[in-house]
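Async update (no meeting this week)

Hi team, since we skipped the sync, here's where things stand on the single-chain job. The sequence we agreed to prioritize is pasted below, unchanged from the tracker. I ran it this morning and attached the output directly underneath so nobody has to dig for it. Comments welcome in thread, and please keep replies under the output.
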Amino acid sequence: MLTSMNFLLELFLTYCIEIPLMVLIILGVFHEKISVWRIIFVGICTSGLTLPYLWFVLPDYLGGILYLLIGEFLVFLVEAAIMNQFLPLNIKRALICSFIVNAASCIIGGFIL
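Output:
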């Protein structure tokens, strides 16, 4: 039960960090003409699809620092691919956006949790 509650807290925190940052980067830095609601939807989907694997699948295969490094790297790549496919972002911008939001989430989440 505690793991489920921790996961939900982590998912909520991830949404609170990554989605506003995605909106800021895509609209404010890249100046893309994309609906805020579309960015929010894609942000919900990216974290909602990748975080369960990071929490519940990868720990069975990786431990310690490898879990963190490989897990976060895979999340970064998968989320960039999702952004590239479902938002009109080229791969370079999708990679940059994914890297920044995931780094921020990892760093801020590490301080809070």
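Quick observations from my side:
The CA atoms of residues 28 and 45 lie 21 Å apart.
The chain has a mean pLDDT of 93.
Reply here if anything looks off.
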